[in-house]
Amino acid sequence: MPVVAFRMKLRPGCQAEYQRRHAEIWPELLTLLHDSGISDYRIFLDESTDMLFASQTISGESSQALGQTEIVKRWWAYMADLMDTNDDNSPVSVPLREVFYMP
């Protein structure tokens, strides 16, 4: 299955709150992600730059493509005060190209 990766940007001073909210991620959002074929979803933080690096294994579309669902719209609105966002509250997300893989 394909793996996609992308980066996002936190606002200064929001690292702890971002981690807290993800530690309490809504069960219905997790269900949507799993049911949409998203697994092994990881988000890494570069503490020196507030940059987030995410990767996920997909059997359909990535989580960024779920923005038309009500639960994702609510999650994006909930997280919008912590990170750089687009006009619809979706996180500004830059796709990353894989340059190395070791199975």
Structure, explained:
By secondary structure, this protein is α+β, with helices and mostly antiparallel strands. The protein has a single domain (3-83), classed as Alpha-Beta Plaits. Helices cover 27% and strands 26% of the residues. It has three helices and four strands; from the N terminus they run E-H-H-E-E-H-E. It has helices at residues 15-23, 27-35, 70-79, and strands spanning 3-9, 38-46, 51-58, 94-96. It has a four-stranded antiparallel sheet. Strand 2 (38-46) and strand 3 form a beta hairpin. The longest helix is centred in the C-terminal third of the chain and has 10 residues, at 70-79. The radius of gyration is 13 Å and the shape is globular. The model has no long low-confidence stretch (mean pLDDT 95).
The shape, in one word, is globular
Q: Number of folding domains?
A: 1
* CATH architecture heading: 2-Layer Sandwich
Q: Count the strands?
A: 4
Low-pLDDT segments: none
Percentage of β-strand residues = 25-35%
Question: In which order are the strands of the major sheet placed?
Answer: 2-3-1-4
Rg from alpha-carbon coordinates: 13 Å
Q: Helix segment count?
A: 3
Helix content: 25-40%
CATH fold type: Alpha-Beta Plaits
CATH class: Alpha Beta
Let me know the average pLDDT. 95
